[in-house]
Amino acid sequence: MSEPQQIFRLRLTFAKQGRLAMLSHLEVARALERTVRRAGLPYAVSQGFSPHMLIAFGAALPVGVGGTHEIADVRLTHYVSADKALSALQEASVADLMVKDCRYIEPKAAAASVAFPVSTYRALLSCTPAVIPLPDEIHVVRKKKEKVLHPAEFLVGDFQLTGAVATFKLEAKPTGSLRPDLLLR
Predict the structure, then answer these.
(1) Domain extents for the chain?
(2) H or E stretch at 73
(3) Is it the case that residue 1 has pLDDT exceeding 60?
(4) Which of 19, 49, 77, 147 has its CA 20 to 30 Å from the CA of residue 64?
(5) Which CATH number fits domain 8-115: 3.30.70.580, 3.30.2400.10, 3.40.50.300, 3.30.470.10?
């Protein structure tokens, strides 16, 4: 029986913006996997019938919503300095899906999807409203099942309106989350 291989967890912070904000979460995942491959990093692969890169992402953004501090964890089989990995990833990235930072985290650290449960959103509105009334509840239909969400349970702090720019924070719960586009709709 062989010795278990040591795995290093590299946490990436990247931006999804410009035209690439129109990518779905799955397309972003594929693009970042290709970036890691092009960068030549020694990524770990899963065992089994269909091996794939061991990479985990933070919360998914809706199509059309950009992000400046998105998170992904890549598992590496060999240590590469964070600066060298960042340089290689930036060379392999496109401007609108750019890796901005890399750092190693503990192997038992919380997953990217639960390590940062609160997200800050900034929405540029088409007009300057005097006030945006927040609904008491939002009805969401997914896979023919209706779910009632209460925005007050997900909103962290105040909903700020400065001219035509709305800024707010939403918390992802273990039971689910509220999409920012549904709140603004």
Answers:
(1) 8-115, 118-184
(2) strand 67-76
(3) no
(4) 147
(5) 3.30.70.580
The predicted model scores a pTM of: 0.80
d(CA 37, CA 74): 11
Q: Is 75 helix (H, G, I), strand (E, B) or coil?
A: strand
Query: Cα torsion at 74, 75, 76, 77 (round to 10°)?
Result: -160
- Other Cβ atoms less than 10 A from the Cβ of 154: the count is 21
User: What distances in angstroms separate CA 111 from CA 52, 53, 73, one per listed residue?
Assistant: 18, 16, 8
Cα 169 to Cα 156: distance, rounded to the nearest angstrom: 5
> pLDDT tens digits for 10-62?
999 999 999 999 999 999 999 999 999 999 999 999 988 999 999 999 888 88
Q: Which two tokens stand for residue 135?
A: 């609904």
